């Protein structure tokens, strides 16, 4: 089965055929760095992380570009988000940008999100944006008004083809206050005149000002990926106006298709309510990481298809964590058995099971990156492996290595939820030490034939989700829930 992607542009699931055989150029709209990343960001960037991982798993050479917006993203009232945060905290704008850019990457690192190949900043590509605006003015797709430059939506017949919005149906002032200098309410800013108090400003042929929000993605994607590239990703909330404006200005300027496949992630709510700072119901990634393991947060994101909306709640993440823990416990058991396994080739029946798992996993992922179904395939494998080890006795190194290798490949390299090794936190090391202490006390009780004490310790550990296995020369344990 070949990879198929649901293309928002055509509203159809299409076979993926890149422009260049074996190579994929991909652009994803990145964060506006003026505050802490929240769990909505986690949903989008974990989802596209899995997309990039799977494309590379299939053998594609992926060039992944994700921008950093540090200028031009205005609030509905017209104030720059970075400038407002700087004013509120008595900081310089670039102090705000540096602080939250670092926090964003630290958060994504913690969630095992691979870094993009290129992370261009809008403020570092103002010359490219100015050059693109010049082209649009020359082709009469844009006009200057009082030091600002606007894109003329009436000059591009296909405006609205991504979102389905019809220009004539858009109400005046529906989103932001309409300026009298605009010819049509839907016209959008390519360059904004800087008022005297506006700190972020650059010289331009139209006077000092700053670029609009939409032009940055068009200019930077062209610089690094070309006029036409394979995949454009982002969140569904930005389909209009941001993505729609990207298409219009890019295709008008270059007379070439912009992105060939559009992938947009579904929205995230928090306890069934859309996240809003004014309502006080936001949850930052830092706050989530204080409560759950990063693998649990990733597993939660992957429990829903990337195009679907999802509700972030304690119960939902706890359920995802339990499911991940069952999977991880079996992986740990396999790796623990490898330490004392006898040499030998892999069992043919096990190899057949692993091959069937790989094929079914790829079938699910080839169907528009269906990570929830692919995760389900791994969970089925986990039940089989658990039965194999607990009922089949010791396994050969070949068998255990083959099982571990598949978990590392599918669960680690693709889904990003199976670590190469357990990273022990101080709390985890303390818990391990306490469990070892109780296991040793039970071993002493058994040596003293104090069976009642030994049974009591086993039961108490079992109640805590710790399962013991008595072997000929030692007692081993694993966490089962």
What's the CATH H-level superfamily name of the largest domain? HUPs
Mean pLDDT: 91
Report on the biggest sheet. 4 strands, parallel
Please, what is the oligomeric state? single chain
User: pLDDT below 50 for ≥5 consecutive residues: which ranges?
Assistant: 171-177
Strand order of the largest sheet: 4-3-9-10
Helix-residue proportion:
40-55%
Structure description:
- The chain starts with a strand and ends with a strand.
- About 1% of the residues have low confidence.
- A hairpin with a 4-residue loop joins strand 1 and strand 2.
- Helix 5 crosses helix 6 and helix 13 runs antiparallel to helix 14.
- It is elongated and about 95 Å long.
- It is α/β, with parallel strands linked by helices.
- The strands form 5 sheets. It has a 4-stranded parallel beta sheet with strand order 4-3-9-10, with helices on both faces. It has a 4-stranded antiparallel beta sheet with strand order 5-6-7-8. The protein has a 3-stranded mixed beta sheet with strand order 12-11-13.
What is the structure about, briefly put?
With 481 residues, this protein is α/β, with parallel strands linked by helices. It has 14 helices and 15 strands. The longest helix is centred in the C-terminal third of the chain and has 25 residues.
Which key features would you list for this structure?
481 residues, alpha/beta, Rossmann fold, Four Helix Bundle (Hemerythrin (Met), subunit A), 3 domains, 4-stranded parallel sheet, 4-stranded antiparallel sheet, 46% helix
